[in-house]
Specification:
This protein is an alpha/beta fold and 418 residues long. It folds into two domains: 156 residues, Aspartate Aminotransferase, domain 1 (Alpha-Beta Complex); 231 residues, 3-Layer(aba) Sandwich (Aspartate Aminotransferase, domain 2), CATH 3.40.640. Strands 2-8-7-6-5-3-4 form a seven-stranded mixed sheet, sandwiched between helices. Helix 8 links the parallel strand 5 and strand 6. The longest helix is centred in the last third of the chain and has 28 residues. The termini are far apart.
Length: 418
């Protein structure tokens, strides 16, 4: 007996980011015990903060019976109040805890908002390149489809509200039912931080076209560049209180706690929020985890220090990785946020095709045993771009980039012989 069409779709299209992660994690590099193991520069996981986290997580904490009992499946009142206070300071706006839905990870939050907005076959417009798991997170269960907004490498793949406008206009001309525009802010994989004028222009576009805006802001507290992060819900956008504007946040990046799987949806519309609360039935967060996070947020001195130290370490990590790339002659897009670098290996491709990109990726992954992700899975507008994560031990980043450099040197030597 066959499985459902929805199950078949999910099984046949697993996120590339997860598949590569698990292969690399099964055989990790160690300079002495396993020098031929994989170096994972493909998973956006912050391994720079454990020394700060460990004492806090190991400390005794008091639990009540309510902390291990059944609770509202979209998040306890206490945790939503704590998150509202925390985000309100970041957004420079009042955040109503009743507008928040807490679920098991940002993936579940993206799934909930897409399922709340879209029927199968309806569309979400997404500026490319975009987070590689969007295809699964936004479409896997909702049955929605993504329409890509092209961008230009010569402009550093900057967000262009005019291009979003044109894509929405073209979709309407083709009689496609577009329900939303979705983006990552700060950008993933580019690491761009969007200024308020750009966000205002984007919000104006979506409002004019009568669609919703979904902003995945998981990297909001991972900015190390000079530009401050501004949320689409922020008062500084001038239009951040639109009921058709929705934001995603979580603890995975800001607090380096990806394994706890806690995501937050700020839903602008009552009916969307009610639908997301219903979807939370299938993806609740454990009450014990919520109690832990509630206590973290109850200590603003600790959280403020943690976020500040995290940003400083991210900046150092970025500078280290970018210097290593420059030494190898590898171009990249300058970043201001996040855990990754968007690097250009185009001149080492055998041909200007995604098949050639796949071939180079396999050589790096299988021969050099370094996990980076090819641009195709991020909907890169042209082949040769890869995403490289740098937020692990500096020695591992150094070894991984050196291995990539060896592959590129071998490609150049082969071309010289030919």
């Amino acid at each position: 007996m066959s499985v459902s069409s929805q199950a078949s779709r999910l099984v046949s299209n697993p996120p590339a980011i997860a598949e590569a992660h698990y292969r690399a994690a099964a055989d990790p590099y160690h300079p002495e015990r396993n020098p031929a193991g994989y170096i994972n520069l493909g998973t956006a996981e912050n391994r720079l903060m454990w020394d700060v986290l460990a004492p806090r997580l190991h400390a005794p904490r008091r639990l009540t019976a309510d902390d291990i009992g059944y609770a509202a499946l979209h998040g306890t009142t206490a945790l939503r109040q704590a998150i509202a206070g925390f985000l309100g300071q970041s957004w420079q706006a009042d955040v109503d805890p009743e507008d928040l839905v807490v679920v098991s990870g940002a993936t579940a939050a993206l799934d909930a908002i897409a399922s709340a907005l879209c029927d199968p076959g309806q569309a979400i417009v997404v500026p490319a390149p975009y987070y590689s798991a969007f295809d699964t997170d936004l479409c896997g269960r909702s049955g929605a489809r993504l329409i890509r907004v092209p961008s230009q490498a010569c402009d550093g793949f900057r967000l262009d509200p005019a291009a979003v406008d044109q894509t929405l206009t073209d979709a309407r001309r083709r009689k496609l039912a577009v329900r939303a525009v979705a983006l990552t802010s700060p950008g993933n994989p580019t690491g761009h931080v969007y200024p308020p004028p750009t966000l205002r222009a984007l919000i104006d576009v979506v409002q004019r076209h009568g669609v919703d805006l979904i902003s995945d802001e998981i990297y909001a507290h991972s900015v190390y560049g000079p530009e401050p992060f501004v949320s689409v819900r922020d008062s500084r956008t001038g239009t951040g209180h639109s009921p058709r504007t929705h934001a995603i946040w979580g603890f995975a990046k800001a607090f380096a706690l990806p394994g706890l799987k806690v995501g937050v949806l700020h839903a602008g519309r009552h009916e969307v929020r009610a639908a997301a609360q219903a979807f939370a039935y299938f993806a609740p967060t454990s009450t014990d985890t919520q109690a832990l996070l509630r206590e973290l947020l109850a200590d603003p001195a600790w959280t403020g220090d943690f976020i500040a130290r995290g940003r400083a370490r991210l900046g150092v990590s970025y500078q280290h990785a970018s210097l290593l790339l420059a030494q190898q002659g590898i171009p990249y897009v300058p970043a201001s946020a996040g855990f990754t670098l968007w690097i250009d290996l185009g001149r080492w491709l055998e041909a200007d095709t995604f098949a050639a990109e796949e071939s180079l990726w396999l050589r790096i992954f299988q021969d050099a045993r370094v996990n980076i992700l090819p641009g195709r899975v991020f909907a890169s507008p042209r082949p040769g771009w890869f995403r490289l994560c740098h937020t692990i031990e500096p020695a591992l980043v150094r070894e991984g980039i050196a291995r990539i450099g060896q592959v590129l040197t071998a490609v150049e030597d082969k071309e010289k012989i030919a």
